[in-house]
Design brief:
By secondary structure, this protein is mainly alpha-helical. Helices cover 62% and strands 0% of the residues. Helix 1 packs antiparallel against helix 2 and helix 2 packs across helix 4.
Length: 161
């Protein structure tokens, strides 16, 4: 499943009568792949998948899903052979946080090095920021800075909880 398929299936799942927790439980392997193998952080996943959910709520849902998943795997650990690691998502996204300034200039030509540093500290790639720009119809770096500051505030607040 690629990123677009995952985004579409999660979006459709959120429109059903299933609880958000049940949806996150069922998509946890895909979310874990984005985190562990592609290096995304939860705020970036929310943006990437275009989820209309608060970061703290999403963190809580993922944490509960992980606990449930660990409890389920520990229960059956003796009866199941070890599985080989599979990539639930096949994607060609460039998630290199050390991307060149020219790459960042494709988003906005006047993007500042400080803004780039803040974006990289959130583990967002150029593609993530382009998606964020389109999703929120951003016209300039001032609007991008405001959104990045909100994400940084959420990240900082989560450290103290």
């Amino acid at each position: 499943m690629d990123i677009d398929q995952l985004k579409n299936s999660i979006t459709l799942a959120f429109k059903t009568t299933r609880t958000k927790q049940a949806i996150i439980n069922s998509y946890l392997p895909d979310i874990e792949f984005l985190i562990n193998d592609l290096g995304y952080k939860l705020p970036a996943i929310i943006i990437l998948l275009e989820l209309d959910i608060n970061i703290e709520h999403f963190r809580s849902l993922v944490r509960i899903a992980r606990k449930k998943s660990n409890k389920d795997t520990n229960t059956y650990i003796h009866s199941t052979p070890e599985k080989t690691k599979q990539n639930p998502i096949q994607t060609s996204i460039n998630n290199n946080p050390k991307e060149s300034n020219e790459g960042w200039k494709t988003i906005f030509t006047d993007i500042s090095p400080n803004l780039i540093d803040d974006i990289v500290s959130l583990d967002l790639s150029i593609d993530d920021v382009k998606a964020l720009k389109v999703k929120h119809s951003m016209l300039n770096t001032k609007q991008l800075r405001k959104k990045i500051n909100i994400l940084l505030d959420d990240k900082l607040a989560s450290k103290f909880q």
